[in-house]
Structure formats: structure tokens, C-alpha cells
């Protein structure tokens, strides 16, 4: 566990360096530690090192950890695919979900959030590479989805931006081109739909977060570079 604090320091330094290269302030970029498959002890170590933003990929794994850290100032993000039947666990447990991909899911989250009297910050996942193995909305389907969302009042969810997964492994130029395409989609959406809070770009993981920051990422989702290799048996 002792490596986690040192890894966090290295990642923070790399974020600051990438931000400086892009003419940005490091404070613009939220570091989200992806703790999937890692034990509570690893999260405790990261928390002692000053990390408060954490993410899980599956609801069931998250629910074994979140109660342990109640009232300790942690902010939880769901970054993996969200099945409709698991949506009931989002309000009250997660402050953010990064994987909205349908009108049906938006409607369900809205109803559930209203029932709990909370707001869920929501990012629309874009399948920017059009990879059939990945989830998310195709780039050309974003505006039709936003059009429906803007016409239907959905209290309880706040549309905050986009999430995208870049091609990996890939050349840095290819990574940056994919992230730039996500940024352009967000910028175009803001202009077209007058979305004042649609500012976030969740882009970049352990292998490509510096490229994502160069292209405007406001959130980076880092697991392996902080916690080490995950247990693939889980």
C-alpha cells in the first residue's frame, strides 16, 4: 500500500506538467482515482494522501465500499456501464455518473433522484471511436439525444458534459485527435443547446491522460497509475 501515496504524487506532477504545456491551470483538472477491484485499504491509503474523488466501474463493487467511507468527505463517481436495473443505486451513493447513453436511462435516473431528493451530475458517454465493443452514444446521435433531453423536463439530473474513451494502444496523434473530437462535440453542444453547465470533459486514463489534458480534459480517470495493476479475477 505504501506505493499509492508516491504514485499519487507522480500523477499529480504529471497532470501539472501537462496542464502547463497546454497553457492551463492544474486546478482545472479533477483527478479521479479509479479504485475498481482494489480493497478498502487501498482507498484508505489514497485518502490519507489527500485524494477525495474516487470512481468505481460497477455498482455492486462500489456498494461494498461506499458505506465504509460515509461522512468522510469522499465523492464517488460511476465510470462504467450503467444497467437500467442498477440505476436505483446511483442517487444517494454517487455524486456523478459518467455513462449516460440513452433517453430511457435519463428518465429512470431522474425519477429515482427525485424520489431521494438529490441531484446526480451526469455525463453523456460518447463512443468517439465507434468501437462496437464499447458503450456510449455515437457522435452523430449526440444532438438528437440532447434535443430530446432539452425538451423533456428531467429534474434530479444535471447534464454536465461528455465522457469519452480514446483509442488505446494508439499513436499520440491518434489519441489527441479522438479527444479533440470529444471536445468539439461538447463545444458544439453548448452553443446549439445553450447548456450553461455543460462544461466537463471526462477523458484520459492511466495510459493517455496527458494527451487528454492537452485536448481539454477536465476530469481524468486514473486507476493503474495510482493503485497498480488490478486483480483481473474480480
Description:
With 234 residues, this protein is an alpha/beta fold. The protein has helices at 2-21, 40-48, 59-62, 103-116, 142-151, 172-193, 209-214, 224-227; strands spanning 30-34, 53-56, 75-78, 96-100, 120-126, 157-164, 200-203, 219-222. The chain has an eight-stranded parallel beta sheet with strand order 7-6-5-4-3-2-1-8. The relative contact order is 0.16. The mean pLDDT is 95.
Give the terminus-to-terminus CA distance: 19 Å
Overall outline: globular
Strand order of the largest sheet: 7-6-5-4-3-2-1-8
What is the N-to-C order of secondary-structure elements (H for helix, E for strand)? HEHEHEEHEHEHEHEH
Poorly predicted regions are none
Structural class category: alpha/beta
Secondary structure: helix percent: 25-40%
The tally of beta strands, per DSSP, is: 8
Count of helical regions: 8
Radius of gyration: 17 Å
Q: Note the main sheet.
A: 8 strands, parallel
Mean pLDDT, as a whole number?
Answer: 95
Fraction in beta strands: 15-25%
Amino acid at each position: 500500500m505504501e506505493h499509492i501515496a508516491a504514485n499519487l504524487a507522480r500523477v499529480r506532477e504529471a497532470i501539472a506538467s501537462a496542464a502547463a504545456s497546454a497553457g492551463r491551470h492544474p486546478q482545472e483538472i479533477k483527478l479521479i482515482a479509479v479504485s475498481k477491484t482494489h480493497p478498502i485499504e487501498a482507498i484508505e491509503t489514497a485518502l490519507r494522501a489527500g485524494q477525495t474523488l474516487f470512481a468505481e466501474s460497477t455498482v455492486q463493487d462500489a456498494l461494498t465500499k461506499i458505506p465504509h467511507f460515509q461522512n468522510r468527505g469522499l465523492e464517488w463517481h460511476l465510470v462504467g456501464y450503467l444497467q437500467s436495473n442498477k440505476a436505483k443505486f446511483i442517487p444517494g451513493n454517487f455524486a456523478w455518473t459518467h455513462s449516460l447513453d440513452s433517453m430511457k436511462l435519463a428518465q429512470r435516473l431522474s425519477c429515482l433522484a427525485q424520489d431521494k431528493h438529490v441531484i446526480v451530475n451526469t455525463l453523456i458517454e460518447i463512443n468517439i471511436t465507434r468501437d462496437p465493443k464499447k458503450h456510449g452514444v455515437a457522435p452523430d446521435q449526440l444532438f438528437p439525444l440532447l434535443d430530446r433531453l432539452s425538451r423533456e423536463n428531467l429534474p434530479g439530473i444535471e447534464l454536465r458534459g461528455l465522457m469519452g474513451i480514446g483509442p488505446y494502444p494508439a499513436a499520440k496523434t491518434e489519441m489527441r485527435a479522438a479527444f479533440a473530437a470529444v471536445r468539439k462535440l461538447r463545444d458544439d453542444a453548448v452553443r446549439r443547446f445553450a447548456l450553461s453547465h455543460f462544461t466537463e470533459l471526462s477523458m484520459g486514463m492511466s495510459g493517455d491522460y496527458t494527451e487528454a489534458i492537452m485536448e481539454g480534459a477536465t476530469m481524468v480517470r486514473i486507476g493503474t497509475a495510482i493503485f497498480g495493476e488490478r486483480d483481473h479475477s474480480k
